[in-house]
């Protein structure tokens, strides 16, 4: 049986690879502490669950949901953006519901790229960004993001020959996996760059609220491009509202891009169950106290985990955002993050994600997801410290 060539670059996936390693370690008797996947262990708010439960009793919600039936959700998303970022948004032309923001990042390249066109992606970056480009037949130009540059790409380093064939740039800050936060000045520079080179500017924004800096928020790309001249942003309720399993997000931005993505979406799926969108409306328009509590929970976990690592001699910078710790490996593991992670789960039962799985420039790092209570995070570090003495030094 023959399959399409577009599947060839999708043979490996960082999460699938670690899932196999976890299964092997578990079969050998290890009790797994899984810090490899950024799936929040916190519950959705009670008022969100109540809205979904109420919808279940309404049989009018049980049918297919087309675009015009999502009007209330689109209005809620536009209202949330206006309140949070001061950006007016037209819910009819500038908002599109998504089955998780990953639907948007994976499908937008189908609307923007022709075979052979380049997309400029962060390296390291989230794997689905590359997957969407490959499915569209595009080429990837990886923009290295390094610690010495604050994990921001150097736009001037993109070759002219690549820019001549490029059609889109994908950014994502606060950044997974490096935890970096981009200032508004960088976004303004990126908007100008994309305007000059006729690029679509895509911003994946799942960690909008998970920022630990005092009196400082992560900027939206639309604050740098208030006219929405080249930009589209993807937001998900997975992180801020602990609704990962509900698969609800939306695209917001340039009306032409929204319309093009809607055309792709209409060929592939409808929308979620209306009750889930009713829960999302309750999340966006209701009390935001749980969002604050979620941020504080991850702040405490971050602090406990960093302190525990420091005690065993593994010093890493304190993340300013997200639900991760991006840790540089000891020198003798610096070129084999996959080997480190594989041996770590085999020896200790602690599962983490290898930096190489996020791109070439991620090699030499590992990503820890802070998806357990502090006591479990500290137990994970204790297991690492009890491993073979040569393992970390």
Supply the key terms.
Aspartate Aminotransferase, domain 2, 2 domains, three-stranded antiparallel sheet, 12 strands, alpha/beta, 393 residues
Explained architecture:
The chain has 393 residues and is of the alpha/beta class. It has two domains: 5-43 and 290-386, Alpha-Beta Complex (Aspartate Aminotransferase, domain 1), CATH 3.90.1150; 46-285, Type I PLP-dependent aspartate aminotransferase-like (Major domain) (Aspartate Aminotransferase, domain 2, 3-Layer(aba) Sandwich), CATH 3.40.640. It contains 13 helices and twelve strands. The chain has helices at 14-27, 46-56, 71-85, 101-112, 127-135, 160-163, 184-196, 221-224, 255-268, 274-285, 289-311, 337-348, 374-386, and strands at residues 33-34, 95-98, 118-123, 139-144, 166-171, 200-204, 231-236, 249-253, 324-328, 350-351, 353-354, 365-369. The strands form three sheets. It has a seven-stranded mixed β-sheet, sandwiched between helices. Helix 8 links the parallel strand 6 (200-204) and strand 7 (231-236). Helix 2 (46-56) packs antiparallel against helix 10, helix 3 packs parallel to helix 10 and helix 4 (101-112) crosses helix 9.
